[in-house]
Amino acid sequence: MLLGGVHTSKISKEKPIFIFGAGEFGKSVAKALKVNNFAVAGFIETNPRQEIIDGLPVLSWGDLTSQKCLGQLLIGIYNRDTPFDELMNFAKTSGFEDVLMPWDVYAALSKELGWRYWLSRKEVILNAVDQIKNTFDLLSDEESKHTLLSICTFRLGLNDSYASFKHEDEQYFNSLTLKKFQNSNSCSYVDCGAYNGDTFIEANDKLPLSSAYLFEPDPTNFKQLVEVVKRSSLAPVCFPVAVSDHYQILSFSGAGEGGAISLDGSVHIAAASLDGLLPNSTVDFIKFDVEGAEAPAVLGARLLIQRSRPVLVLSLYHRPADLWEIPALIANLCADYNFYIRQHFNNSFDSVLYAIPK
Predict the structure, then answer these.
(1) What is the CATH architecture of 131-357?
(2) What is the pTM of this model?
(3) Which regions of the chain are under pLDDT 70?
(4) In sequence order, what DSSP letters do the residues of 201-266 get, joined into one string?
(5) Strand (E) or helix (H) holding 190
């Protein structure tokens, strides 16, 4: 296993900085740059809707001159929809030579930017090479091993083309997870992070569900979830709580798919362990998509997992180290699982671990 040398692209205080994208992430980057005394020249958008945002001019690509293109361009778009390699190519064909990616500047801005899903200082990956190798050895097929290394090198700035890679497998319910239920007429399903019921609807369509337990702490999402499951003949049990390793009250911020546990969240939610909530149950399939709390959630389901040995699917992109720590955690909790990693959206968002009992 080889991660290779790391290309270092340093942000300079000697050249003006344009930010491509004036969404939530782009505005946060601009604020962080100004706090750190960088010269922010403005935002660039393909179709500007405002002339000024947060005191900075908003330019179109047509407004740029060759002189302005001598500055630095920082990609301020950070989501799963638009691949970074496409943004990079577009910026360079528009005249910029000095193009910076979010990971190029995160070390300088991490204090102000805080948690941003998988984004981290490069040292987080480089200092974990031994752990990454151990997880690499746990994986059950060459595609998963290749995926693990590709994600790591992508996040180190060594593999830009991986930004637009997605596996063809369907997320969560695919040949890896459905095989166990081909000749079964029952499946007890647990959805941690049920959102608005979308994954339950898909599970009910693809699995022979006999019972379902759905957990969603966000009040707005939970209201939608309850309305959606009313239309199901299965009558799943819905819990307005988060899952963790013990009972606690947590702060929650954001909404919709972007909600997350945080220290300064404006909404307070209850969290409890699956072992405490389902003490005598046996389940067949558990999905964990809990905005960075996957590891505590797994620890809180230790007895349930050991008792039931269900199919497990877990998001790996909410925290930088989840990619290698979560497979190792499950391997330590319960032996005789096969481990697979698949990539379902751009920019290494929606990378998922599939743990399948042997």
Answers:
(1) 3-Layer(aba) Sandwich (3.40)
(2) 0.93
(3) 1-9, 252-265
(4) HHHHHHS-EEEEEEE---HHHHHHHHHHHTT-SS--EEE-SEE-SS-EEEEEE--GGG-EE-TT-S
(5) strand 187-192
